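Contributing new records

If you add data, match the layout below exactly. Sequence lines come first and carry their own label; structure lines follow with theirs. Keep one chain per record. Anything else will be rejected by the validation script.
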Amino acid sequence: MLEFLNKRRTIRKYSEKTISNELLSKLLHAAAQASNTGNMQAYSVIVSTDIELKKQLAPTHFNQAMVTEASLVMTFCADFNRITKWCEQRNAVPGFNNFQSFMAAAIDAVIFAQTFAVAAESAGLGICYLGTTTYNAGEIIDILNLPKLVVPITTLTIGYPVEMPILTDRLPLESVVHFETYTDYTKDSIDELYADKEQHEIYRKFAAENNKEFLAQVFTDVRYTQKNNEFFSDKFLNVLKQQGFMN
């Protein structure tokens, strides 16, 4: 398992081979064994295979080709709709229309998604997470007919790989692991931890192509600008209000 995890890659190009219902059912069953808050399973997933529906979803993910090319597009949602209805039908008063409940459900949805991703990869499939889901959550809600107390959190494209890209680099473990308490970073430690990434030929080229002196400027000035971050933050907060989590 450790060897398998250390060799995993994100797959963005898929063959036309479809994923059988039998395999999908097995993967979903395995993913449903994942840890979750209070064993409430406050999540749901919408499995999209229809090409016309995937075409509707594509613009919400900035028209990335893999949305229509993948065998499956799976939208994982925080979902307190089902549990709320269960409580109401059993003379129990639900109190899940709040931010705390949303966060618990969102975390559980991601755990469910990641467990499915590992299961899928172990079966020879390739996956790619789409971080655009929360950017256009409102539009996805309309397309997938999501009711109140259901919010899309993340999306996976899944299919059989047609290529095996190179392993993506990662920062040294000491960049992200702290023992006992958090150790803040010094100027020197930042320089040391990011040295290999900044000096890598791929990233030096990446910075040059974007006319930036430093790789960090690509993230702040091009990919994840403050203006865009604030715009999509406001947009998502409005979705949470619309879906009943910010009353």
